[in-house]
């Protein structure tokens, strides 16, 4: 049997390494898809409030916090009351022992901070600082499986069948990078150990690159 030829230019004894590119189209939401999702959970929450139901209200807060903070699903499930703005009065979320046992502080929009504080005041009233932020129907901390199931179900009802929590994290990373092109800030917010992981957002749905592509249009019919 003949040995497989090495790729030209690669030193003997080394292995080819794939380079990390941008995200696949199904791994994040564009602006239209995101607007549709946010509108859906908002309307569902309004309807739930009128009938005194809580599940859709919780779903609304879950989607908003994932979209505007970039939290990992397990990080969201582990949040306690003391990690949120209503406790420390800052527009930030504290992640204790995130992936790799790394703790970090995430900046969030003021509107989200107010939304979270209002949710705690109405739906977690009296909960002590060390108690979970999100609980399921049985009053216990919301599990990763429970959160994943909620997001998956919402995606199916909004025409986004491949939606899952990490889709929203990727959406956050892509949108945040496109605002100021500050790779290191995106890295800090997402809690990546290396910018090599964060660089994928610079290659995903990049508005500057899109403008260049659109300028190529000479009148497609």
Order of helices and strands: HHHHEEHHHHHH
Q: What's the total count of β strands? A: 2
Named CATH architecture of one domain: Orthogonal Bundle
| Average pLDDT score | 89
By secondary-structure content and strand pairing, the structural class works out as mainly alpha
CATH class of one domain: Mainly Alpha
Q: How many strands, which pairing sense, and closed or not: the largest β-sheet?
A: 2 strands, antiparallel
Strand content: under 5%
Q: Into which percent range does the helicity of residues fall?
A: 40-55%
- CATH homologous superfamily grouping of one domain: Intergrase catalytic core
Strand arrangement in the largest pleated sheet:
1-2
Give start-end ranges of low-pLDDT stretches: 1-11
Write out key terms for the chains shown.
single chain; mainly alpha; hpI Integrase, Chain A; two-stranded antiparallel sheet; 10 helices; 4% strand; disordered N terminus
Summarize the structure.
The protein has helices at residues 31-50, 55-69, 73-78, 85-88, 110-123, 144-157, 165-180, 183-190, 195-198, 207-214; strands spanning 92-95, 104-107. The protein has 221 residues and is mainly alpha-helical. The N and C termini lie far apart (53 Å).
